[in-house]
Design a protein that fits this description.
single chain, about 140 residues, alpha/beta, Nucleotidyltransferase, domain 5, five-stranded mixed beta sheet, two-stranded parallel sheet, 7 strands
Length: about 140
């Protein structure tokens, strides 16, 4: 009696596996955040006579840690004048909005306003929030 040997061919389909791995990789790459600053944390001072300004202007922000941001990009005070000059050249409305935390040193705010004037800003607006918005 002869025993017949069967050979089984194993055929591994790798294309669906590659698709699954690629989709997992894409999912993790899109959902992972590498040091993204969600925003600049500033507590604006309150005012009764605040007026709305267009957000298309140039915004200089100062945090309570005395970090300076130009349109949400951190910048040193020594490079602020040059960066402001570059931004002001391209804008028709040459107004700079200063968003400063209520607990910062007044001297730093004055220094930033002087730099804005030296960079040929036609106006400086100090950003506040209305008291009625807090309630």
């Amino acid at each position: 009696m002869e025993i017949e040997r069967r050979t089984i061919k194993l055929n591994l389909q790798i294309a669906p596996l590659i698709d699954i791995i690629f989709n997992l990789l894409l999912f993790f790459m899109l959902s992972y955040q590498i040091g993204i600053n969600p925003g600049i944390k500033i507590t604006l001072p309150m005012a009764k006579t605040a007026q709305l300004q267009k957000e298309e202007n140039i915004i200089v922000s100062i945090t309570k840690e005395n970090k300076i941001f130009l349109n949400e990009h951190q910048i040193g005070i020594d490079k602020l004048k040059g960066a402001l000059e570059e931004k002001l050249v391209t804008k028709q409305n040459k107004t700079v909005i200063l968003k400063a935390d209520e607990k910062i040193d007044l001297g730093l705010a004055v220094k930033v306003m002087d730099i804005a004037k030296e960079a040929q800003a036609q106006g400086i607006v100090i950003s506040t929030i209305l008291e009625k918005d807090v309630r």
